[in-house]
Amino acid sequence: MIEIDEITKLYEGTAAVDHVSMTVETGTITVIVGTSGSGKTTLLRMINRLIEPSSGEVRINGEATSALAKHELRRRIGYVIQGDGLFPHYTIAGNIGAVPKLLGWTKDKTRARVDELLDLFSMEPAQFRDRYPAELSGGQQQRVGVARALASRPDLLLMDEPFGALDPIIRARAQADLRHIQRQLGSTIVLVTHDMEEAIHLGDRVAVMDGGKLLQHGTPAEIIAAPATDFVAQMVGGVDRPLRLLSLIPVSEALEDGTADGEPIAPDTSLRDALSLCLWRGVEALPVADGDTPLGRVTLATIRARAAELA
Amino acid sequence: MSRSGMIRAACVALLLALVLRPHWFTPVFAPFAPAGGPVIYERASILSLSLSHLGLVALASGLATLVAVGLAILVTRPAGAAFLPLSRTITNIGQTFPPVAVLALAVPALGFGAGPTLVALFLYGLLPIFETAIAGLSTLPPATMEAARGIGLTRWQRLIRVELPLALPVILTGIRLSVVIAIGTATVGSTVAARTLGEVIIAGLLTSNTAFVLQGGVIVGLFAVLVYDALSLLETALTRRLGRQSAGAEA
Amino acid sequence: MAGLSPPGVLFAVLGLAAIFAPFMTLAANRIVAGEGRALWTLAAPQITGPGIALMLLGLALGLPAARPFLRIAGAALGLAGLVWLLVLGASSLLAEAGDYARVSPAAGFWFLLVVFALMMADALSALSPGPAARAGLLVLVIALVGALLWSGALSNLSIAQEFASRKNAFYTASLRHLGLAFGSLLAAAVIGLPLGVLSHRNAGLRRALLPVLSFLQTIPSLAMFGIMIPVLSWLSGVIPGARAIGIAGIGFAPAFLALTLYSLLPVVANVLAGLRTAPAATLEAARGMGMTWRQRLTRVELPLGLPVVLSGLRIVLVQNIGLAVIAGLIGGGGYGTFVFQGLNQTAGDLILLGALPTVALALVSAIAMDILVELTTPRTEREE
Questions:
Q1: With 60 as the cut, is the pLDDT of residue C2 above it?
Q2: Interface membership of C168 toward A (CB under 8 Å)
Q3: Where is the ABC transmembrane type-1 domain (chain C) (predicted)?
Q4: Domain boundaries, chain A
Q5: Minimum CA–CA partner of C127 in chain B
Q6: What is the CATH classification number for the domain harbouring C183?
Q7: H-helix segments, chain B
Q8: pLDDT at position C184, please?
Q9: Helix (H) or strand (E) holding C189
Q10: Nearest residue of A to residue C292 by CA position?
């Protein structure tokens, strides 16, 4: 559990981060979202003390970060930045093994960990281990950046706009991969982004910041359904809000018995995508099936009712 | 006046005094002269040595600039492109030739006096200018060049109105480098009997008179610093003007 | 013109013109001005014929644009022809002249040498050989030139006679020149690297240091050497025991100190530039993963900046090999001794005896350092 307690950063008397408190539960993704200058990156960088707070403190599993030497604290926390920041003169294995090497792991242990991580990110170890970052595509470099941050099994992973440099299609895939790997490893992640779509998609919890203040901190559904301020409402997209809410609910939660015509959809499809398909096919209902097993159907009327009930 | 302006003015005043009224400095240099020996160089007037020194440098650098920029224009045209790798090779190899050796090698061919010094300064001065001129002319913003073609400028017009003005600050860097090297190297020309301020220094070395060495060294050093400074100012002014112009064009 | 290499055409034109220039000079003795002799007047046609033919063939082989190997072969043939004419021409000219006669290569020879050397360099640059190939080539060329010099084939030339009468002085001067150039490089590196690293971390030091070092560079070399003389004779008087370890107002010490002072700016400036080559994101990541500043320096900044640091050392080495000539003026030894003696006696060959090794040393050092710089460039950048 990460506790951020009344943390403040002053630059020449102006607060870049102003008395922010929040708690990040172990094994969850918290996304801090805000416009540029909102203080979100400053807040993130105060967690691993790349920036020293002016006041307040951060505790990781009850232990204050100020109690540790800075570099030792950072070796326990994974850190991923936009544009990956890989070492151009190290091989992929060298990059991923950088923190284990700092921690004094044996060569065999490091090597095994590197291969394990490459496998996890579906990059064939034999093929990628000895290559250099410049020989990889942007998406692959980004995955190596995340793998490097996970190498020493850190208590916490900090990510600063990790997908900012990727094009939309690769970004969607990278987000899905991250979600998948986080579920598998049970990692605790704090991620900073300016993209509310990304925040809603990835976050177990979303924290909205503006002008150095934490405006609202809650589940994506809470943020969309009950924005605390006008600014948050604007961030979650005004008239798009019902659609965003529907995007958080899988059709499995709105199933009813019966059948419908057409290609069946998977139960983890979101209601938003189901709505889109209904409109596109010009039908009132879609069949839902898990592989070859029919589960029932979802209807336009149900979707409309769910949207109304949430608003 | 700004602080750097004041330092500049002080340097100019000091230099003028050293060149025009060398005797004012007798008390300054006296401690370095051998007992009873001369303090201030008197075998030739410092003014005439300075003029001859600067004249040699100006002539050599002027010729070097003309030839180097001309050659750079040639090899950056499509017709001369085949010579580009060769020119790069020549510049790289040529710059490893020590200036003193070039000077010495010019003597068997040209005899003593100003001739070999001029040739050595010219040859040695060519390379930095040629190098930066090629760099300046071959790294112009592609969008600007495309626009120049788009509005219907001929090749010649593009060269005169767009390419050369844009490359000028970079070319000036090469000229500055070349001129400063030439001012220093010209002193060595006095070993082959060219009339330069090196005469004062060499007289000091031959008679173990440090006063002469300092007198000559300080004057040459001040010339080098002031010329370097003046050319830097010119370069900054040009760069800033180009910067403003292109910013204005985008706005 | 299709299929012809434009530089090849230029070389052919220049080469043909140079064939008509005086190829060698024959002088009655060491000091008097000689008389220039054209190629075909050096010796009997059965001697000059093959040499001229080799050079013409070489120039012709330099023409096809698409065949760099052919052009390299042409340059090699041309150089062989040059050496053939130089060796046989010298002995034939001496045979017809008096006891004190001297022969030297003249403008035509030097011009043709430059033409064929450039032809070789141009063809090589078209092949863009890797560092290993270039190193091999460098060793091969040094071995060939060394073999030619050792064989005694050139001993009839005037410069070789100057050398023969000064063998020991030449070896002493060589050692001294190398000592001055490499010693001052080492000293500048030992002082400049830490200074560069410290001023990278400390902006105040950087702002104070760089103007001082730039100022040192503007002092004309001649004056710098001169100023060191009183400074060191003062030091040797003040510091007990200084004279015993060789610190004195004349000779090696002032030259060494002058060269070291000149070298500091390029070393420090390139260390600073090199340490700045690491991308900001990479440094941020290194900090974020918990590297101490020492680890960032040794694992990220220095390895990435090494090529730039080495290019600084290359500049210094080439510059010092050249400037060390001036040591000859203040009794510091080295090749400058011959250059300035030659200038005093108007003995052109003595000047060459000092200048040619200096130029060769500078060239070889520059090429070797370039290879080193390329080898240390991170693989990824080289492949891009």
A1: no
A2: no
A3: 174-369
A4: 2-236, 244-310
A5: B85
A6: 1.10.3720.10
A7: 3-20, 26-29, 46-75, 84-94, 99-110, 114-138, 142-150, 155-157, 164-188, 198-206, 210-250
A8: 92
A9: helix C167-201
A10: A71
* C240 interfaces chain A, CB cutoff of 8 Å: no
Looking at the partner chain, which of B86, B96, B201 has a beta carbon nearest the beta carbon of C222?
Answer: B201
Contact of C4 with chain B, judged by CB distance below 8 Å, is answered with no
Partner-chain residue, chosen from C282, C299, C381, that has the shortest CB–CB distance to A86:
C282
Mean pLDDT of chain C: 84
Shared-domain flag, residues C147 and C184: no
- In sequence order, the β-bridge partners of residue A209 are A214
How many folded domains does chain C comprise? 2
Q: Which residue of chain B comes nearest to C211, CA vs CA? A: B225
Whether residue C1 is contained in a domain is answered as: no
pLDDT tens string C198-208? 998 888 888 88
Mutate to test the interface with A, among C275, C304, C380 (most CBs of A within 10 A): C380
Same domain, C85 and C38: yes
Task: Report how far residue C255's alpha carbon sits from residue A240's, in angstroms, rounded to the nearest whole number.
Answer: 79
3-state secondary structure B129-155: HHHHHHHHHHCCCHHHHHHHHHCCCCH
pLDDT of residue B245 exceeding 60, the answer is no
The pLDDT score that the predictor gives to residue B247 is 36
* C65 and C213 co-located in one domain: no
**Residue of C275, C277, C282, C375 to mutate, testing the A interface (most A Cβ within 10 Å of its Cβ):** C282
| Confidence class for position B165, pLDDT limits 50, 70, 90 | confident
Tell me the C-alpha to C-alpha distance, in Å, between residue A206 and each of A166, A236, B67.
Answer: 22, 11, 67
ipTM: 0.78
Domain count, chain B: 1
Q: Which residue among C10, C220, C325 sits closest to B187, beta carbon to beta carbon?
A: C220
Determine the residue of chain C that is closest to B109 in CA distance.
C107
Dist. CA C274–CA C268, nearest whole Å: 10
Q: Report the pLDDT value the prediction gives residue C224, as an integer from 0 to 100.
A: 83
Residue numbers of chain A with a pLDDT score lower than 50: none
Query: Residue B119 falls within a domain, yes or no?
Result: yes
B/C touch flag: 3 or more CB pairs below 8 Å: yes
For residues B59-86, give the mean pLDDT.
86
- Do A and B make contact, counting contact as 3+ CB pairs within 8 angstroms? no
| CA atoms of C24 and A245, how far apart (whole Å) | 94
pLDDT, tens digit (0-9, with 9 covering 90-100), for C120-177: 888 888 888 888 888 998 999 999 988 988 887 788 788 888 888 888 888 989 999 9
C384 touches chain A (CB under 8 A): yes
Residues of A whose CB is below 8 A from C379 = 89, 132
C284 and A85 within 8 Å at the Cβ level: the answer is yes
Partner-chain contact C380 A89, CB within 8 Å? yes
Fold of A2-236: Rossmann fold (3.40.50)
Are C223 and B100 inside 8 Å of each other by CB?
A: no
d(CA B163, CA A26): 61
Contact A86 C285 (CB under 8 A): yes
CATH of span A244-310? 3.10.580.10
What confidence score (pLDDT) does residue C379 get?
Answer: 63
Task: For residue C218, name the pLDDT band (cuts at 50, 70, 90).
Answer: confident
User: By CA distance, what is B224's nearest residue in C?
Assistant: C218
Convert B22-37 to b/e letters by CB count within 10 Å (16 or more is b). beebeeebeebbeeee
Cα–Cα distance list, C158 to A7, A233, C165 (Å): 85, 94, 11
Rounded mean pLDDT, B224-246: 77
Which domain range does residue C207 map to? Answer: 167-383
Q: Which of B50, B213, B218 to mutate to test the interface with C (most CBs of C within 10 A)?
A: B213
User: Where does A151-298 have alpha helices with state H?
Assistant: 168-185, 196-202, 220-225, 230-235, 241-247, 271-281
In a domain, C344, yes or no: yes
DSSP designation for C296: I
CA distance A209 to chain C (A): 23
